[in-house]
Amino acid sequence: RSLLQVLASVACNFVLLDLNLSLAYPTILIAQLHQKEGPLSLDDVQASWLASIPFICQPVGSVVSGLLVQLMGRKRSLMLVNVPFLVGWLLMYTAHSFEQLAVAQVILGVTIGLCEAPLNTYYGEISQPELRGILAGTAGTTYQTGFFLEYLLGKVTNWRTVVIMNAVLPVITVLYFSQVPESPIWLLSKGRKRDAQNALCWLRGWVKPNAVKEEFSQLVRYSEEAKKEIELRTPDEEERPEANTLLDWTHREHVTAKRRWKCLGLARDVLRPPTLRPLSLVVPFFFFVHWTAMTAIRPYMVHVFEGFKVPIDPMWATVGSAGIGILGSLCLLLLVHSTGKRPLSLCCIAVCSVACVLLGLYLNFHSFLNSSQIKSVISSSVIISQYRIWKEIYGLETTLEYLNKQLFGCLITERKWRRQFPPLCLRRNLKEAIVLQVAMAVTGFLGSVVMIGSVNRLGKRSLAMSSVAVCALSCLLLGVYDYLFVDRATWVPLVLFTVFSFANSIQGQIPWLLVAEAFPFRTRGLAGGMAAASNYIASFIAAKTFLSTEHSLQMYGSFWFFGVVNCLCFAFLYFLLPETEGKSLEEIEHLFAGNKDHK
């Protein structure tokens, strides 16, 4: 019973792979063309636009997809979107200017939006309740796999070759999708009961109609109830203002008025609690998810890894982060049914928050330790301790020359040094070094006082052993600190990025699981399109503003900002996110409608 549902979901995953390759491609394009010499080069503004154009164009396609999926059905919509995907990749391959690249990104962005509503609804409508979370969760694995494959291709070949490989996938997707059935619920909404029953039999393992009789009856009842609710909210013909006008209306005008009323009724349904409540949960969830770092930095991953000075090739680090994302998506598949969406969401968001704060602290501390001021203070401290010896041995002139070279990197005459540098630089550095030496002397004095007060009670042996142990530990920590932080590439940010990528790959897929199951059937297409549109609006803002945020707050400040957003997201979900795992679509609808008596 499960195998055919898996095969049908694979068809959706092919479309999703088309979508993810389009989202991952700007990372390769920016890494190979940003601030590079050649006939085609991108500056900061152009790079930010290419990174964000698909996100801002997607809402156009999402709104259209909500209507398209109701008219054409899930299957035909998902087959049709492969045509503009292919056109966009071919235009990208032939591009020789920023403008051509931008047009190709616009086409791909709109097509991404066209995929959202049919993808989200098809996952939820073809699967049984106990498999819905797992099958919808495969979308997360496919999502991360798309990034991994695209980054890997970008590492081993150039951006035009990657485009040709991407253009092959839409053709394969159409061929595969032609072999799977339409959504049974959509077929029932069109009055095609025989086709709906055949589709359900196919999805449950090519079984006989008697084997799915009970489930099919539930789908029929659910579809009829949805139709009745729409009819109850539709006034009779004589109550409609359109029907009380001139008697010479044509039949076509009457049909147009009926369609207009149905569209108005659909818009009203979106504002009712069964749709409005999950929509008011999912839309902020998307905004929080995309402002928790990964979406913002993904197009600039190579640049970010270079900023953290990771000990491996930044492009390989980017590939590795996508590979970790695949592992996180697989864990989501294994855990979502037993653990539930709510605990997973809260745990992953907490981990992401801690990782972002630590990344910001690391970068800020590492930059501080490598700053010229700290180095000059250290140099001044050494100079003070040896100043009198140098003066006695080498004389004043030679000593001043050495000071000039150590502190300023050049030889300066005694008169110029006396006039300019002592009040500006040397005295300040010497003052800071003197403060450090005074602090060390005071600490030594306090240690002597402690020794005098405790030697009789603790004994010389205990004091000596404990002091030696503390000195040994201090020397060990100083050595580890010097190895990890001072003028060396370090694995610390790479480990933090690994943890962050793992948790984010789980966190980022949970709102999509909600989109696949939280909305009622009658508004599922339109509400799913609206949710997807909000998702990409948030993605556009995050990707477009990252470079500006980095320039304003520095990179460490940006990660602190992302950590704060993660904390806000945790609070939001803690109070508002219900558990929907293991519930049928009807139960979820009653949950959001506030019908506590329904079981």
From TrEMBL:
It is a multi-pass membrane protein. It is found in: Membrane. One of its GO terms (cellular component) is membrane. PROSITE patterns: MFS (PS50850), SUGAR_TRANSPORT_2 (PS00217). Residues 6-581 form the Major facilitator superfamily (MFS) profile domain. The chain crosses the membrane at residues 48-71, 78-96, 159-177, 278-297, 317-336, 343-363, 434-455, 462-485, 491-514, 526-547, 559-577. It comes from the Eukaryota. It holds the Pfam family Sugar_tr. GO terms for molecular function: transmembrane transporter activity. PANTHER family: MAJOR FACILITATOR SUPERFAMILY (MFS) PROFILE DOMAIN-CONTAINING PROTEIN (PTHR48021:SF39), PTHR48021. This is Solute carrier family 2, facilitated glucose transporter member 10. It comes from Zootermopsis nevadensis. The lineage of its organism: Eukaryota, Metazoa, Ecdysozoa, Arthropoda, Hexapoda.
